[in-house]
Design a protein that fits this description.
Layout (H helix, E strand, L loop, with lengths): L3 H15 L14 H4 L1 E9 L8 E9 L5 E9 L2 E10 L9 E7 L2 E10 L5 E5 L6 E5 L6 H13 L7 E3 L7
Antiparallel strand pairs: 1-2, 1-8, 1-9, 2-3, 3-4, 4-5, 5-6, 6-7, 7-8
C-alpha cells in the first residue's frame, strides 16, 4: 500500500490531463452581475446526468433581497416541462465577481465561473473547476455562426474539448 500511494500521486497529473483536467476555468476579472441577471437560453452544454435529454432549456437569474440569486432552470424532457429551482451566491463579489457558487440541494454548492461574456451581455461561456462542465448561453434562442465560432475559440483556448458539446434544440422557444 505504501508503494501505491507515491505511484498514484505521481500519476495524478497525467490522469487529470486524460480526463480533460488541463483547462483554464478562471472567471473573467470584470463582471457586472446586474447586467447578467435575467433569462438566458442554453445554446450548448457538456452532457451530464442532471440535464440529460433536456431541450429548450433556459436559466433565469433573479437578485434576492438578501443579495443571493434565485436560479430557475427549466426545459422540456419527455414532452413535459421540468424545472429546477436553486440559489447562487458570489463568495467574493469585489475581488472575484464572475465566480459564483450555485446550489440546487440544501447547502451543497458547485462552482459557476463566467469564462466569457460579450460587451452587451448577450452571450456567455460558463464552466466550473472541473473540465466536465461547460455551457454556452445566449439571450436569444440562437446565435450566429460568427458568434458561435468566437465562443468556441475561447473555450478551446481555455483547454475545453468542444467536440463534446451537445447543441440544444430551442425550437419551442423560437
Amino acid at each position: 500500500m505504501k508503494r501505491l500511494i507515491p505511484f498514484v500521486l505521481a500519476m495524478f497529473p497525467a490522469l487529470c490531463a486524460a480526463r480533460g483536467g488541463q483547462h483554464d476555468s478562471s472567471p473573467i476579472r470584470t463582471f457586472d452581475l446586474s447586467r447578467y441577471l435575467g433569462t438566458w437560453y442554453e445554446i450548448a452544454r457538456f452532457d451530464h446526468s442532471f440535464e440529460r435529454g433536456m431541450q429548450n432549456v433556459t436559466a433565469e437569474y433573479l437578485l434576492r433581497d438578501d443579495g443571493k440569486i434565485d436560479v430557475i432552470n427549466s426545459g422540456w424532457k419527455d414532452g413535459a416541462v421540468k424545472t429546477a429551482d436553486g440559489k447562487a451566491r458570489q463568495p467574493d463579489p469585489k475581488n472575484d465577481p464572475a465566480h459564483l457558487e450555485v446550489s440546487f440541494f440544501l447547502f451543497f454548492y458547485s462552482d459557476y465561473n463566467v469564462l466569457m461574456v460579450d460587451d452587451l451581455y448577450q452571450v456567455a461561456l460558463v464552466g466550473s473547476k472541473s473540465a466536465d462542465y461547460l455551457w454556452i448561453l445566449s439571450r436569444t434562442p440562437q446565435i450566429s455562426s460568427i458568434v458561435k465560432e468566437a465562443v468556441l475559440k475561447e473555450a478551446r483556448r481555455r483547454g475545453y474539448d468542444t467536440s463534446n458539446l451537445i447543441w440544444v434544440d430551442q425550437s419551442r422557444n423560437m
